[in-house]
Amino acid sequence: MLCYKDVLLTRYGQTTTVTVSPYVPAIPTNADYSECLSDPNSNAEVELLGPNMLEIVARNGLAVEAGVDDISPGHLFSAPASGLPQHVYDLKLAGAVPLYLALFKSGVVGYVENSSDGQTYVSTPEGDEYITTVWSVDCDGIATAGISGGLKFQFFLNVNGEVVTDAALHAGLGKKRQAGGVTAFPNNNGINTIPRTPAPLPPGQKCPAGQGAFPKNPPVNPTANGCGAKGSISWYVIPNLDFEEACNAHDICFGTCEGTTFNGCNSDFLGRMQNACNRNTEAGSLKRRACMNAASSYHYMVSTERFGAKAFASAMREHCDCKCTTFGTTQCGDKCVNLQTDPTNCGSCGNACSVVEGARCVNGQCTKDIEQCVANLRCEAGYLWLKQGNGSYRCAGGGHTMSAQEASNKCLA
Prior knowledge:
By secondary structure, this protein is an alpha+beta fold.
């Protein structure tokens, strides 16, 4: 068992009122986490970001905000062996030997070698108790922690940059608590998680295959609204950083019909944010590290189906029309077809030739295939017509015959 030092939770005389409701795990509406920013069932490594956009790392057994020289190994969500409670996970450091992120009754947040495998506290030789199976994550990638139906943990950074919980909440609910000298985690005291691997790219195309995007007539010029309203997820991911120009350019790119792509707009967005970080922060500084983390986080968000591809498609519908670009094709629904040869749109959209009768589309008119037509005809007693060497047909059930011309006249009538 690792050893942990005491963490001072002095509030410097400042008082606030804290109200706590019973904790309910953050489960997305689509419980399979499809289209969500983080999927705890994917075994993908994530970064945990603190209120200053710096990674949460392990140092001397404690969870701390990263310094200049710290290397983040990333974290993994892990379902407890018991599988209970559902949608509640452990968080562990990525590596050959797992270390679980634990919340102690003393208020310490640190790393231990063994999971609590459920929501029962585990005692330590030092006289403290910890629990690890407390984490859930919503579709926006915000991880929260709590005892199902009981306490929700509140997270802070103390003056030493250590992650702590407000241990005083264990004593009761709704009472006045000292809360000075620490920095609260934003977003309802959740921890922002960002996958370390690139987002799987959604289709991101403006129009169906064979069509190009052209400005509406009359044109609807694209507009920009910056990086999002205060209180939105984007505000949490990019607080107090000079990304306004990058955000505006990204909005304009999404609404530009010709010469832009989903991936191209997002790559340009990342480059502009990184340039802002390089302009406004000192190389090797914590501010530079935090700024680059924020840029990567926001780029990941806009590259996903949930936050990016849907916005891209919406901007296209607002500003652009899809038109066929191949000569000789006409737009029918979301497809570009040749009205002279397409059997489902023969001569006009929706005019389908009868496949059962072997019809084809020739020069914009449905023309039946004679042999296919005869194959669907019946002579006496329901027998088939059999083709003869001279091109005529004989009834399989008797002596009746039909010349090739008679067959053609019957089929084309």
